[in-house]
Amino acid sequence: MWPSSADATLIGRRAFSTLRPLFSHDNPLGLPRSGTPPSFPRRRGLPEKRKIRDVKKVVAVSSAKGGVGKSTVAVNLALSFARRGIKTGILDTDIFGPSIPTLLNLSGEPRLDENNCLVPLTNYGLKSMSMGYLLPQTQFDNATGEVPMDTTPISWRGLMVTKAMHQLLHSVSWGPLDVLVLDLPPGTGDVQLTINQEVLIDGAVIVTTPQDIALRDAVRGFGMFQRMDVPVLGMVRNMAYFACPNCGHQTKIFSHGDGHHSHGDDRGVIAECKRLGVDFLGDIPLDAQVCEDADRGMPTVVAEETAERSARRQAFLDIAEQVAKKIGLEWH
Ligand SMILES: Nc1ncnc2c1ncn2[C@@H]1O[C@H](COP(=O)(O)OP(=O)(O)OP(=O)(O)O)[C@@H](O)[C@H]1O
Ligand SMILES: [Mg+2]
């Protein structure tokens, strides 16, 4: 999927920003500072898939469509694991629109260890790495109202993205981890392919919303993993229904694929899962609190840890338990 013009603007701004000596140490990504495009040794054939160092299992959270709640699901899954004592990390592979710094309320420049690997930032017992820690936020010039423009050559941009992705995948010092959750960017394009080609992924979780249009994209995402020999652990239906905070009544706001707004699942996500032979992992309600928790950097699984009964927290935990069991993690 091509970035929108706003994204492209951001890429360019960030790409150029990396050329400046912004960091107290050498540019952590090793990206070029000169005005000439970098050259990287051309590799022949496909890169070999390899394990991420010190990481036992890798789970990718994905959706072909943007904005369906991948990052929200990914971070709550990872936190569910971490809160159960499973050593967990989350890698934000969304270079153009990193979400993890906001979701975990983390910022700042990661340290480099003695092997020149990036040291993850941690919150709520969850280790994390994101492009958002490495690059400065886009500066919108309030005084002039000037929006930064992308002037990076496309070929250069592509190389930088590949290089950055490579570093994020292979140069982070995770320490021993039982599981690393990859929060993938939306789509089934080059970035997703690079990740799938370079890293051994133990399983993918596909996030969709109930609408036909999102589901169709989810099926496309399924196809990508199938072609890349990555087992699909199942589908999550996010924003499945709206639970009224006052009376608890559940309303299916989005069409569930059957042409009606309140009917069964004969043509929706569950039916599609059956058709594809994929497990349906569960529903997450459309809930203002889930969004609010995410925005303030304390995702629901942590925010409602002490709540007596939190259906939305339980929804994430139930999905995490299934995923954990599927990839052989101990769930206590
Ligand atoms: N179940 C939910 N209830 C309410 N709001 C939600 C829910 N899930 C996600 N959101 C909100 O929807 C927005 C998009 O979610 P999120 O960033 O997780 O999607 P994404 O698929 O990762 O997006 P992108 O494709 O841009 O990476 C966020 O504001 C998030 O807080
Ligand atoms: Mg996201």
UniProtKB/TrEMBL annotation:
SUPFAM superfamilies: P-loop containing nucleoside triphosphate hydrolases (SSF52540)
Listed GO biological process terms: iron-sulfur cluster assembly; mitochondrial respiratory chain complex I assembly
InterPro entries: Mrp-like_CS, Mrp/NBP35_ATP-bd, NUBPL-like, P-loop_NTPase, YlxH/NBP35
CDD domains the record matches: Mrp_NBP35
Record key words, sorted: ATP-binding, Iron, Iron-sulfur, Metal-binding, Nucleotide-binding
Top-level taxon: Eukaryota
Signal peptide start and end residues: none
Region Disordered: start-end pairs: 27-47
Gene Ontology cellular component list: mitochondrion
An annotated Gene Ontology molecular function: metal ion binding
Family statement: Belongs to the Mrp/NBP35 ATP-binding proteins family.
HAMAP family linked to this entry: Mrp_NBP35 (MF_02040)
Name of the protein this chain belongs to: Iron-sulfur protein IND1
Organism: Penicillium canariense
